Amino acid sequence: MSKRTFLSAQWRNLLMLNYEVSPYVLIPHLPPATELDLWQGKALVSMVGFNFLETSVLGIQWPWHVNFEEVNLRFYVRHFDGKVWKRGVVFVSEIVPKPMIAIIANTLYNERYRSLPMRHRKVPVDNEQLSLRYEWKHKGRWNSLGGTVSTTLQTMPPDGPESFIFEHYWGYNKLSETTVHEYQVEHVSWQIADVRNAYLDADVADLYGEAFVPFLAKDPVSVFYADGSPVSVRIAGKIHT
Q1: Pair type for strands 35-36 and 68-80
Q2: Rounded distance, CA 169 to CA 115, Å?
Q3: What is the CATH number of the domain that holds 201?
Q4: What percentage of the chain exceeds 90 in pLDDT?
């Protein structure tokens, strides 16, 4: 039986810059009862920017907390529940411009949210491309990620790298050495588009830790855009090991 919906929203304009990292960088962040989910033997992390739209928490739209940006750093895991493998994500960091969102998510889900000033820009370049940029202000400097996105949307290949990145439908958060939060994320398969000239300009060491610096300083191994859709996040349960 599915748990009650905790959050519903539209996730739109998802831009994902994907980097290969050493698995050893991720081990300190790995929740119990999970293992790294590798793509062709490689451990990947993603820098993600997107828009939260029409957001409601437990069915309530809170004033001034309905539409906002998020930028996060995440990696990919899987959990065997005794019957099937569940593919999920773990967040190293999540940034939003709304303090209340960060407080609720950190308190109820043990997430890794922080609140910083944010803004985004989405403007046409020509009839076939648009410029998409997400920014967050940290210690007086605007950090950013962005790229030039094709306006032609495509169906996501079922077994390609795009599917590996986008189609993880569970979230896992470490509560202790023996307990983990597990929550389900529901949405349809997204349409995708090509991205050129992607960039990341961020204080990686201060925001994410020195261990990530040499990996996020390199070019991403892939960059994807998805148009997004309505999503539902179910109330979390606990797994004890």
Answers
A1: antiparallel
A2: 25
A3: 2.40.400.10
A4: 85
